[in-house]
Amino acid sequence: MNYFNQPDALSIDQLVLDQWMMPVRYPEGYDLYLIQAGEGYHLANENRFMYKKGDVFVLGPNDRYRFQITEQTRLLKLSFSLTYLIDLMASGSHVWGYPDWVTSGTGTLTNDSEEQGKLQALLAILLSEQLSLHPLTGNPIANSLMQTVFSLIDRLYEQRLTESTSHISYSSELIRRWIVY
């Protein structure tokens, strides 16, 4: 079954918030937040992370989260369903590691301003498509952009794993040396 045309399969919103008025959220699909301006705290699954401009959070169906805003915050919120993601993978040649993207337990996906800028640009085009009354679901431009967004998230996630693995390897080596000593 093709879910590209499912009404809420894909949406993007730009929000400007002085405070988080919504209850703790449990997304039905996936939510990606890109902080465009402002500061505060992202509270997810018993974790608390300071956020600032450029931070990226990816949350999945099992995450409970909210934001605690200390400075007016402007953000882009991209929501997509699992079925949309599966259908998008089926239509292309790339398979993404989608369940592993959910990084709420470890904070922002990337601190690299260049990578944050790329994601910002892609999401801005998606928002522009939606604001110009071109529905995102069933929209080939939106689907192509989403493939690029997912590929970028995959790459950032792999970089994050490599960084954390090299840190663990270094720590393991120090522990091994200490024990041998």
Protein described:
With about 180 residues, this protein is an alpha+beta fold. It is about 40% helix and about 25% strand. The protein has helices spanning about 80-90, 115-130, 140-180; strands at about 10-15, 30-45, 45-50, 55-60, 65-80. Strands 1, 2, 3, 4 and 5 form a five-stranded antiparallel beta sheet that branches. A hairpin with a 2-residue loop joins strand 2 and strand 3 (about 45-50). The longest helix is centred in the last third of the chain and has 41 residues, at about 140-180. The radius of gyration is 18 Å and the shape is globular. The protein starts with 9 loop residues before the first strand and ends with a helix.
Question: Low-confidence segments, ≥5 residues, pLDDT <50?
Answer: 1-7, 167-181
Q: Outline, from the CA principal axes? A: globular
The total of beta strands comes to 5
| Percentage of residues assigned to helices | 25-40%
Main attributes of the structure:
5-stranded antiparallel sheet; alpha+beta; 5 strands; disordered N terminus
